[in-house]
Amino acid sequence: DGGITQSPKYLFRKEGQNVTLSCEQNLNHDAMYWYRQDPGQGLRLIYYSQIVNDFQKGDIAEGYSVSREKKESFPLTVTSAQKNPTAFYLCASRGPPGELFFGEGSRLTVL
Amino acid sequence: DAKTTQPTSMDCAEGRAANLPCNHSTISGNEYVYWYRQIHSQGPQYIIHGLKNNETNEMASLIITEDRKSSTLILPHATLRDTAVYYCIVRVLPDSNYQLIWGAGTKLIIKP
């Protein structure tokens, strides 16, 4: 079935470590997005990519990095520079006529 | 993109219609109203969208007021599986960077 696959579902990290969250889609969508969600709040945009080899910062890009080497893949790295990384991370792609398709999310906890 | 205002939480009895309001008084003429829902610890799911006409699909109906300053999402026969947080978002189509404003949404609880 077509969709967005995020992994891992749960991830624990020690302070000072970088971690990479995977996001793969087989929907043939050009645009992909990474959001962060904190408890009881809405989604905030971290990075987005409209096309392969191009990406733009969202509202809260500091401490995060991304790459878009393939259309299907948009991994997010949470670096040690992110001061409060514990959160629920959501990857999405955009299909016509503009609706977002989300993955199941990755929950990151910093120990 | 314009900002939206939604009630924090609502209850509805199973089998009844759930009516979720959204205020978007600063909406501009080229902004669409979108609704998503998020079941606990899952990714949001698209429900429906509209510009100015009322819309209906297999999941819900969207009623937009004539002045477009508010809208209502209607789940005609709510089930327990409809318990979720519902987000109302307005955005321009097509947009260049998808800088959506996601509020806290409405937590809808369907009671047996």
Describe the structure.
The complex is a heterodimer of chains A (111) and B (112). Chain A contains no helices and 11 strands. By secondary structure, chain A is mainly β. In chain A, strands 2, 4, 5, 6, 9, 10 and 11 form a 7-stranded mixed sheet that branches. In chain A, β4 (32-37) and β5 form a beta hairpin. The N and C termini of chain A lie far apart (35 Å). With 112 residues, chain B is mostly beta strands. Chain B contains no helices and 9 strands. Chain B has strands at residues 9-13, 18-23, 31-38, 45-50, 55-56, 61-64, 70-75, 84-92, 106-111. In chain B, the strands form 2 sheets. Chain B has a 5-stranded mixed sheet with strand order 1-9-8-3-4, with no helix packed on it. In chain B, a hairpin with a 5-residue loop joins β6 and β7. The radius of gyration of chain B is 13 Å and the shape is globular. The termini of chain B are far apart. The chains are: A mainly beta (111), B mainly beta (112). The A-B interface holds A 4, 31, 33, 35, 40-45, 48, 50, 56, 58-59, 88, 90, 92, 94, 97-105, 107 and B 32, 34, 36, 41-46, 49, 87, 91, 93-95, 97-105.
- Uncertain segments of chain A of ≥5 residues (pLDDT<50)? none
What are the segments of chain B in which pLDDT stays under 50 over at least 5 consecutive residues? none
Derived from helix and strand composition plus strand pairing, the structural class of chain A reads: mainly beta
Alpha-carbon Rg of chain A, integer: 13 Å
The first-to-last residue Cα distance of chain B is 38 Å
Mean pLDDT of chain A: 93
The tally of helices of chain B reads 0
